[in-house]
Structures are given as structure tokens and as C-alpha cells.
Amino acid sequence: MDENYLSLAEHVLTLARRKGADEAEVMVGAGRNFSVSVRLGEIERVQEAATRTLGLRVFKDGRTANRYTADLTPRGLEAFVDKTLDLLQIADRDPAALLPGYEEWPEPPDLQLYDPAVELMTSEEKIERALRAEQAALDFDPRITNSAGAGFSTTLHEMVLVNSQGYHGSYRGTVAATNVQAIADDADGKKRNGFWYSVERHVDKLLEPATVGRIAAERTLRTLGAIKVQTRPVAVVWDPQSAMSLVGIAGGAASGELLHRRASFLVELEGQAVASPLVTLTDDPLLAGRVGSRPFDDEGVASRRNPLFVDGIFQAFLFDSYTANQCGRRSTGSSERSVGGAPSVGTSNLVLTPGETDPEEIIASVEDGLYLTDMIGHGVNLTNGTFSRGAGGMWIEKGKLAYPVSEINISGNLREMLAGITMLGNDLTWSGSTAAPTLKIDRMMVSGL
Questions:
Q1: Are residues 245 and 369 part of one domain?
Q2: Which site in 32, 70, 132, 281 is 20 to 30 Å from 235, CA atoms measured?
């Protein structure tokens, strides 16, 4: 990606101001994407694409409009700017829709977002990784009888942002990922499957393809013979992957958009003990090499570490400039959007600080309960904290994993769940932009479906 996208963005910014915009912002996104999917040793699909997109937001007389284009020719850009400005005539006035004020900020640390090894990988190497991952799953155990496929993908991306407040910035990054889904036949002929993946910015941090395949196979075999259980309240031990889901829900509830709409169970709880004293949860875009890291947000506000919970106390909500203006706050550098899309509040890297307990010790502390490894559905109400999702995992009896369970439901209230975390593991695990350890919630309702 050797084109001068910064000059291009500044050119469009100048056009927009010259044609009548009071303020303007230009984002350019460019990337190259590769993905391969294989099944049973055969290539099913290979996709490779390059994209270049320019987005423009314009502001005039309290109104705002935004559009995007892939036509970056001089004539195309002239017409694009004109059409974007035309949209201002039908836009409603919105006093909160403003560019963030420009602030001088120090050079961010080296976030190690780009790995040249990703760019140097050949298509053959990427295909071979997918094939190796699937074969490792199929070879792991004769009970693995089929595959739903495996894949490998890479992304190279570059982002440039300029605005009429004087801000200009850019960065580039890479992402690589491996995935496998293995299948086994239960005694009654029911198909059971297990999935695993690894995603990182740097190739050398990815799990080996054989490891991804092995874990997918292990998770599949762990479901064989799964049964339902009787409905009752029990302790639930969340494996790190499941705990990441809970972390994501808690991070989403801290959105300034929900604060403005009074649609989060965390409203009016800033500064109060909401979760267990064990819980420290941070949104941190400045972690080197992590998928969610970035030097600035999608409005050009400097990235910063935002504590959400510290020792169980809810610290603050996350804001982009729009929700900050609506709520009388300041942006926390938490804006995210697609090129040309409207900004919204999002998280970067969500990290639940681990504890000091071995996961085996957490399981051993449970006399009768669930070791949660899988969840399905979206039964979460962030307004009142109601939580109810389909689930599966292993049943714990007398401190040991006894047998697999499936077709069950776990339910509770998010505030009570966060407060009910009584143990945290020392096994902090990353998956994409989220990290969590094993955790134990002392009491949740488990229902047989």
C-alpha cells in the first residue's frame, strides 16, 4: 500500500471546505484480504480482494451528512463531495453532532500493529495452514468422523484520518487467523461439533495449525454423550472463552449511547460497588500487538486506557464525541465506525485482570455445578440486566468434571452475576481483542430445556 492516502484525504477535505462545509472530516481505508476455506482435504473457496474506500463527513449550520465512495478519480471525487453536501439540505439540525476539538497529544507508543511476515506469506502457505489445521483435527481421534471445514485468512489494512480542526493521522496493521470445526457422531447418531480458532496481528503469535485442530477435536469429543440436567440453582465455572462473552457484555453495558438512552443497568452506578471486589476490567487500546489496539479512535481522538471496573467499583462509561456532547462529558477515545459510516461507541481491548487461583482448584471447589464451555443465543437485556442463554459444558460432581451436558439454559441478572464472582483463575487467555481467565459465579439457575 504505497499510495499517498494522506494527500488524497487532505485534497478532499480542501474540496469540501471550498464548496461550503463549515467543518469536514475525511477517512480513507485501504486493505488487502485473503481467505481460504477447505473441507476434507479439498479447497472449497479462495477469495482475495483489495479495497480502497474514502468516507466524508460534512458539517454546516448545525447539520451533518456522511457518505463514502470507491471512485477516487478527480472527477469522481468532485461529484462525490457535491452529493455529500447536497445531503445537508435534508438533514435535521443536531447540536451534539460536532467534530471533536483538536488536542495536541504525545506520539503514541509503538503498538506493533503491523507484521511484515503477514504480507510476505504466499497463497500456498496460507492454504497449507488451513489444510494442516483440519488434518490435525481428523487425525486426533477415530471418533472424529467429519469436518465442517477449516480456514485461514489474512488482512492488511491502512487507515488515514484528517479533519478541519487540524487533525491528521494514519496507521497500518495486519491480522491473521486460523479456524477449524470438527464433527463426531454420538451414540444415537446425533452430530456433535466443536470449533476453535486463533487470531493475532503477528503470524508468530498464532497457535500452530495442528494445535488449533487438536483443540477443536478435543472440544468436539467432550460433547459426546451429553445429557440434560434437572433445573436447579448451582455454581457455574466459566471457562476463559465463556468468560470473554461475559466481559464483552459488561463492556457493552458501559456504552455512553446506553447512558444517554437510560438503557443500561449501569446507569447511575458510577463510583459504586457493582461487581465483586475481584473484578478489575479495563478497555485498553494501547497494548502492543493486540487486535483491538490503535493509536487513535475513528474520530482522531487519542487512544487512552479506560478502566471500567476497579476492585468491583464501576468507574465510568465510554464515549465518542457525539455521546459525550449529549451527556455533557468528554470523549474517551472510544469512537468506532466503518469508512463513511456514522460514529458509534465501541471497545478496543477488553481485559479482565486474572486472579491467582489455578483453574483446577476452582473446579475442585464446586460440589455440584456446571463447567460452562459453550453458549448460544442472545438472551441479554442490558437495560435491566436480565441474562438467559442456551448453554453446554461439563457437569461438576464433588470437584471433578463428571459428564457432558447440553440443551440447557443458564439465567441470572447481570448485576448479581458480576457481584457473585467469587474466584478468578490465573489462566488469562486472549481471543482476538478480549482476554479473560476462568471464573466462578457462586449461584445461577441452570435449566434443562
A1: yes
A2: 281
Angstrom CA distances, 21 to 60, 138, 146, 265, 373, stand at 5, 60, 59, 40, 52
Q: Which pLDDT score, from 0 to 100, does residue 103 have?
A: 72
Mean pLDDT over 321-350 rounds to 95
Q: Is the pTM of this model over 0.85?
A: yes
260 occurs within a structural domain: yes
Distant-in-sequence contacts of 248-252, Cβ < 8 A, 24+ apart: 248/347, 248/350, 248/434, 249/380, 249/382, 249/387, 249/414, 250/275, 250/281, 250/308, 250/309, 250/414, 250/418, 251/281, 251/283, 251/308, 251/318, 251/347, 251/350, 252/347, 252/382
Is residue 196 located within the same domain as residue 290? no
Average pLDDT of span 374-384: 93
Residue type, 354: P
Listing DSSP states for 88-115 in one string gives GGGPPP-TT--PPPP---PPPP------
Residue 297 lies in a domain: yes
Q: How confident is the model at residue 108 (pLDDT cuts 50, 70, 90)?
A: confident
99-134 b/e (C-beta count within 10 Å ≥ 16 → b): bbeeeeeeebeebebbbeebeebeeeebbebbbbbb
Cβ atoms of 176 and 153 closer than 8 Å? yes
**pLDDT tens digits for range 411-438:** 999 999 999 999 999 999 999 999 999 9
Residue 424: other Cβ atoms inside 10 A: 24
Residue-number span of the structural domain to which 406 is assigned: 226-449
Q: Determine, yes or no, domain membership for 102.
A: no
